[in-house]
Amino acid sequence: MKKQKSLWRVWAKALGEKSGRTDREADIIAGIRTFILFAYMVTNVAIVANAVRHWNNIDNCHAENKSRSSNL
Q1: Helix (H) or strand (E) holding 19
Q2: Which of 2, 12, 18, 67 has the smallest CB count inside 10 Å?
Q3: Which residues contact 25 (CB under 8 A, 6 or more apart)?
């Protein structure tokens, strides 16, 4: 339990300056900052995955445009 509490303190300090009047309030603020960090990470992974998925997708786009124009 003590090791877990120590890890939490290190993580909270890594997130930035301690905010809050009490330790409980500071822990809540650190939890919110952790949630925001994970939301950023998930968003960044989605953006990179989309970019990788569509990397060098030019041939497929040209083929789709040719088939659409030939159908007209």
Answers
A1: none
A2: 2
A3: 19
Both structure tokens of 3 = 């090791």
Q: Tell me the C-alpha distance between 29 and 32, whole Å.
A: 5
pLDDT digit string, tens, across residues 1-16: 788 888 988 998 899 8
18-59 pLDDT per residue, tens: 888 999 999 999 999 999 999 999 999 999 999 998 888 776
Query: Exposure string (b/e) for 39-65, b if CB count within 10 Å is 16 or more?
Result: eeeeeeeeeeeeeeeeeeeeeeeeeee
Residues 6+ apart with CB under 8 A from 30: 8, 11, 12, 15
- Using alpha carbons only, what angle is made at residue 17 by residues 14 and 18, rounded to the nearest 5 degrees? 100
Q: At 55, which amino acid appears?
A: W
